[in-house]
Amino acid sequence: MNNTPFLAIIGGTGLGQLEGFGVPHSQLIKSRFQDEPVQLTLFDSKDGRLAFLPRHGAGHRLPPHLINYRANIRALHDLGVTDIIAVNAVGGIHSHLGPGSVAIPEQLIDYSYARATSFFAADAAPLMHVDFTHPYSNEIRQLLLHAVAAVNEAADEPVSVLNHGVYACTEGPRLETAAEIQRLKRDGCDMVGMTGMPEAVLARELGLRYGCLALSVNWGAGLGLDPLTLESMQEVIQQGMGFIRQVLLQSVQMYRQQHAAR
Ligand code: HPA
Questions:
Q1: Residue 184: closest CA among 172, 192, 193, 175
Q2: The whole model's pTM is what?
Q3: How far is the CA of 25 from the centre of ligand 1 (A)?
Q4: Distance of CA 248 to the CA centre of its chain
Q5: Nearest-angstrom CA–CA distance, 67 and 55
Q6: N or C: which terminal CB in the chain sees fewer CB atoms within 10 Å?
Q7: Ligand 1 midpoint to CA 189 (Å)
Q8: How much of the chain exceeds pLDDT 70, in percent?
Q9: For 82-131, how does the pLDDT look when each residue is reduced to its tens digit (9 = 90+)?
Q10: Are 55 and 66 in contact (CB under 8 A)?
Q11: Integer Cα distance of 141 and 20 in angstroms
Q12: What value does the CA radius of gyration of the chain take, rounded to a whole number of Å?
């Protein structure tokens, strides 16, 4: 593994582009997992490199169950990335995770069932069982927690943040039934999304540190008073992404300071 610190941000719904990090350069990276190359944006500055990958592809074309997670993570790995902040929209299940609030989960349960979940093939080396006890990197979680705290400290209206929690990954693209959300709740899940897996485990397989910054864009099905509509979710995404972008700027700054100090 290349050890020069190199941070990437994976953007989800509502975060198809990044600004404020310097001059962007587009880069195409081929892998054996996909015919067309993965399109990334690189920001090179004297303070260090940064990569940005819109998970759903340029123009947000791909629904969660059709994303080629292996091509995406392989591209970041081949670029030399060592650390990933993944931004995910979720439905809130925990009572503190109403629309507009943010979570930095520390565990996950994978309910997806029709995705390519590993780089290991039939002829794989014996190392195919990666340790996934703690699916998110503690270093990235701490970075995000500090960044969120700093942004909230400077804000007139702090955003509510869940500093822990269990992320449930469903297959989608449909939303859940009310009974499914009750089951996720009984299972101990605090939020539900469709893109957290297999992204997290693929990063682990390739030795990349990975953390999740989740924005709640709705209550899980059956938990809120209002019907779930795409319009209401999009409204929350529009409002919430301002905070997410500030947290990302802060995270990148802190990441660079940490690594410059070493
Ligand atoms: N369920 C699954 N994925 C989601 C949701 C949800 O309610 N909201 C945003 N992504």
A1: 192
A2: 0.95
A3: 31
A4: 12
A5: 7
A6: C
A7: 13
A8: 96
A9: 999 999 999 999 999 999 999 999 999 999 999 999 998 766 566 688 99
A10: no
A11: 22
A12: 18
